[in-house]
Amino acid sequence: MQHIKIRQERESDATQVYEVVKNAFASAPFSDHDEHNLVTRLKTSHAFIPALSIVAELDSKIVGHILFTKITIGDKPALALAPVSVDPTHQSQGIGASLINAGHKVAKALGYRAIVVLGHEAYYPKFGYVKASAYKIAAPFDVPDENFMVLALSEDALKNYRGMVSYAPEFFEA
Fold it and tell me: What pLDDT, in 10s, does the model give residues 19-77?
Protein backbone atom coordinates (compact mmCIF):
# COMPACT_ATOMS: atom_id res chain seq x y z
CA MET A 1 0.00 0.00 0.00
CA GLN A 2 1.16 3.49 -0.77
CA HIS A 3 1.97 5.80 2.11
CA ILE A 4 -1.16 7.52 3.36
CA LYS A 5 -0.72 10.63 5.47
CA ILE A 6 -3.34 11.13 8.21
CA ARG A 7 -3.68 14.74 9.38
CA GLN A 8 -6.11 17.40 10.55
CA GLU A 9 -8.18 18.90 7.77
CA ARG A 10 -7.18 22.38 6.62
CA GLU A 11 -9.57 25.00 5.25
CA SER A 12 -7.94 24.57 1.84
CA ASP A 13 -9.07 20.90 1.85
CA ALA A 14 -12.79 21.73 1.95
CA THR A 15 -13.57 21.19 -1.74
CA GLN A 16 -11.69 17.90 -1.91
CA VAL A 17 -13.31 16.69 1.33
CA TYR A 18 -16.77 17.56 -0.02
CA GLU A 19 -16.10 15.50 -3.17
CA VAL A 20 -14.64 12.54 -1.26
CA VAL A 21 -17.64 12.39 1.07
CA LYS A 22 -20.10 12.78 -1.82
CA ASN A 23 -18.39 10.05 -3.88
CA ALA A 24 -18.01 7.70 -0.92
CA PHE A 25 -21.77 7.57 -0.34
CA ALA A 26 -23.01 7.96 -3.93
CA SER A 27 -23.97 4.29 -4.24
CA ALA A 28 -24.16 3.34 -0.55
CA PRO A 29 -27.35 1.35 0.10
CA PHE A 30 -27.98 2.63 3.65
CA SER A 31 -27.50 6.33 2.98
CA ASP A 32 -29.61 9.41 2.39
CA HIS A 33 -26.83 10.53 0.00
CA ASP A 34 -26.58 13.84 1.85
CA GLU A 35 -23.50 13.12 3.98
CA HIS A 36 -21.39 15.69 2.07
CA ASN A 37 -23.90 18.41 2.94
CA LEU A 38 -24.08 17.18 6.54
CA VAL A 39 -20.31 17.58 6.84
CA THR A 40 -20.54 21.11 5.43
CA ARG A 41 -23.31 22.01 7.92
CA LEU A 42 -21.45 20.50 10.87
CA LYS A 43 -18.26 22.43 10.07
CA THR A 44 -20.14 25.67 10.77
CA SER A 45 -21.89 24.39 13.91
CA HIS A 46 -21.18 24.70 17.63
CA ALA A 47 -20.50 20.95 17.59
CA PHE A 48 -17.47 21.24 15.29
CA ILE A 49 -14.02 20.43 16.67
CA PRO A 50 -11.32 21.28 14.08
CA ALA A 51 -8.87 18.72 15.52
CA LEU A 52 -11.45 15.98 14.90
CA SER A 53 -11.96 16.69 11.21
CA ILE A 54 -9.26 14.40 9.86
CA VAL A 55 -8.18 13.56 6.33
CA ALA A 56 -6.24 10.81 4.62
CA GLU A 57 -3.91 12.20 1.98
CA LEU A 58 -2.18 10.30 -0.80
CA ASP A 59 0.17 12.12 -3.20
CA SER A 60 -1.23 15.52 -2.10
CA LYS A 61 -4.80 14.36 -2.83
CA ILE A 62 -7.48 13.83 -0.17
CA VAL A 63 -8.75 10.23 -0.41
CA GLY A 64 -10.51 9.94 2.95
CA HIS A 65 -12.14 11.98 5.70
CA ILE A 66 -13.62 11.41 9.13
CA LEU A 67 -15.57 13.76 11.35
CA PHE A 68 -16.33 13.56 15.07
CA THR A 69 -18.64 16.20 16.54
CA LYS A 70 -19.82 17.13 20.01
CA ILE A 71 -22.96 15.48 21.38
CA THR A 72 -24.31 14.69 24.81
CA ILE A 73 -25.41 11.38 26.26
CA GLY A 74 -27.93 12.38 28.87
CA ASP A 75 -26.12 15.38 30.34
CA LYS A 76 -22.58 14.12 29.71
CA PRO A 77 -20.32 15.31 26.87
CA ALA A 78 -19.41 12.79 24.19
CA LEU A 79 -18.74 12.57 20.45
CA ALA A 80 -20.52 11.28 17.37
CA LEU A 81 -18.50 9.64 14.60
CA ALA A 82 -20.24 10.67 11.40
CA PRO A 83 -19.31 10.13 8.73
CA VAL A 84 -16.18 8.23 7.77
CA SER A 85 -15.62 8.51 4.04
CA VAL A 86 -13.12 6.96 1.66
CA ASP A 87 -13.05 7.64 -2.06
CA PRO A 88 -14.44 4.56 -3.84
CA THR A 89 -11.20 4.02 -5.75
CA HIS A 90 -9.32 3.69 -2.44
CA GLN A 91 -11.76 1.64 -0.37
CA SER A 92 -10.86 -1.70 1.23
CA GLN A 93 -7.25 -0.59 1.74
CA GLY A 94 -7.40 0.20 5.45
CA ILE A 95 -7.82 3.95 5.04
CA GLY A 96 -11.12 4.05 6.93
CA ALA A 97 -9.58 2.05 9.77
CA SER A 98 -6.60 4.41 9.89
CA LEU A 99 -8.93 7.41 10.08
CA ILE A 100 -11.03 5.81 12.85
CA ASN A 101 -7.97 4.89 14.91
CA ALA A 102 -6.45 8.35 14.47
CA GLY A 103 -9.72 9.98 15.49
CA HIS A 104 -10.00 7.83 18.60
CA LYS A 105 -6.48 8.82 19.62
CA VAL A 106 -7.17 12.55 19.17
CA ALA A 107 -10.55 12.28 20.95
CA LYS A 108 -8.95 10.57 23.93
CA ALA A 109 -6.15 13.18 24.04
CA LEU A 110 -8.81 15.93 24.07
CA GLY A 111 -10.39 14.30 27.12
CA TYR A 112 -13.47 12.74 25.56
CA ARG A 113 -14.67 9.53 27.16
CA ALA A 114 -17.26 8.15 24.73
CA ILE A 115 -18.13 8.06 21.03
CA VAL A 116 -21.38 6.94 19.42
CA VAL A 117 -21.82 5.76 15.86
CA LEU A 118 -24.73 4.73 13.69
CA GLY A 119 -23.06 2.20 11.47
CA HIS A 120 -22.55 -1.29 10.16
CA GLU A 121 -22.87 -3.89 12.90
CA ALA A 122 -20.04 -6.02 11.48
CA TYR A 123 -17.54 -3.19 10.94
CA TYR A 124 -17.48 -0.96 14.02
CA PRO A 125 -17.15 -3.71 16.67
CA LYS A 126 -13.62 -4.28 15.26
CA PHE A 127 -12.75 -0.93 16.86
CA GLY A 128 -14.36 -1.70 20.22
CA TYR A 129 -17.86 -0.37 19.59
CA VAL A 130 -20.70 -2.22 21.32
CA LYS A 131 -24.47 -1.83 21.24
CA ALA A 132 -25.33 1.43 22.96
CA SER A 133 -28.41 -0.20 24.47
CA ALA A 134 -26.09 -2.33 26.63
CA TYR A 135 -25.35 0.91 28.53
CA LYS A 136 -28.95 2.19 28.38
CA ILE A 137 -27.89 4.78 25.80
CA ALA A 138 -30.60 5.54 23.25
CA ALA A 139 -30.72 7.18 19.84
CA PRO A 140 -33.14 10.11 19.38
CA PHE A 141 -34.57 8.39 16.29
CA ASP A 142 -35.74 4.93 15.32
CA VAL A 143 -32.75 2.76 14.41
CA PRO A 144 -31.97 -0.96 14.58
CA ASP A 145 -30.38 -1.77 17.95
CA GLU A 146 -27.36 -3.48 16.39
CA ASN A 147 -26.49 -0.39 14.33
CA PHE A 148 -26.38 2.17 17.14
CA MET A 149 -23.13 1.67 19.02
CA VAL A 150 -20.91 3.29 21.61
CA LEU A 151 -17.18 3.15 22.35
CA ALA A 152 -15.61 3.75 25.75
CA LEU A 153 -12.28 5.52 25.27
CA SER A 154 -10.98 4.19 28.58
CA GLU A 155 -11.91 1.55 31.11
CA ASP A 156 -15.08 2.46 33.04
CA ALA A 157 -15.54 5.52 30.80
CA LEU A 158 -19.24 4.75 30.35
CA LYS A 159 -19.90 4.08 34.04
CA ASN A 160 -22.18 7.11 34.44
CA TYR A 161 -23.35 7.47 30.83
CA ARG A 162 -27.08 6.80 30.40
CA GLY A 163 -29.95 8.26 28.48
CA MET A 164 -30.80 9.83 25.15
CA VAL A 165 -28.13 11.05 22.76
CA SER A 166 -28.52 14.68 21.76
CA TYR A 167 -26.98 15.51 18.39
CA ALA A 168 -26.28 18.93 16.92
CA PRO A 169 -29.40 20.23 15.13
CA GLU A 170 -27.45 20.20 11.85
CA PHE A 171 -27.85 16.41 11.80
CA PHE A 172 -31.58 16.86 11.26
CA GLU A 173 -31.53 19.59 8.60
CA ALA A 174 -31.71 18.86 4.92
Answer: 999 999 887 776 676 899 899 999 999 999 999 999 999 999 999 999 999 999 999 99
CA distance 158 to 5: 32
Q: What is the pTM of this model?
A: 0.94
Alpha carbon 158 to its chain centroid, in Å, reads: 18
The DSSP string of the chain is -PPPEEEE--GGGHHHHHHHHHHHHTT-TT--S-HHHHHHHHTTSTT--GGGEEEEEETTEEEEEEEEEEEEETTEEEEEEEEEEE-GGGTTSSHHHHHHHHHHHHHHHTT--EEEEE--TTTGGGGT-EEGGGGTEE-SS---GGGEEEEESSTTTTTT--EEEE--GGGG--
